[in-house]
Amino acid sequence: MDRMDLLGQLLAEHGIPPKGFEIIERGTRVRISEGSHIDLMESGIILLYVSKRIPCWKAYEVKERIKRYMDRLASFNAIAGIEISDQCLLSLLRKLNVAISLESPKDDQLSTLWREYVITLKIVPLLTGATD
User: Fold this and answer.
1) All domains of the chain, ordered by start, with CATH?
2) Cα angle value 7/14/24 (rounded, 5°)
3) What is the pLDDT of residues 71-107, one digit of tens each?
4) Do 37 and 49 form a contact (C-beta atoms < 8 A)?
5) Which domain of life is it from (predicted)?
6) Strand runs labelled E in the chain
């Protein structure tokens, strides 16, 4: 079993079934869903990226919410922004204070990664104003 298969199996066991892997500069990107991925950097740094489609007419309101919650986002090592192209997306990026070795990931590190991913998902409704 190669390293990516092992990592995929371990992530799935911890509640994060990967949709695929991509080798990126200085690390590995784990695709979680269409708008979410985790970058596991060779240095051990972990970046969580979550993107959610929002109605374009709501972009200004979401931008104001981002400004209002800037301090709270900073406490989570998160930054947020709105990407406007052919669609409007709220993007949230977090740098985690946990490191995972790609060579030998440990169970407690993967459990922490799962918890942090769930926390990141819970930040999105705060910014979109969603109550569901």
Assistant:
1) 3-128 (3.30.1460.10)
2) 35
3) 999 998 899 998 888 889 999 999 988 777 666 767 7
4) yes
5) Archaea
6) 20-24, 27-33, 36-41, 46-53, 78-84, 88-96
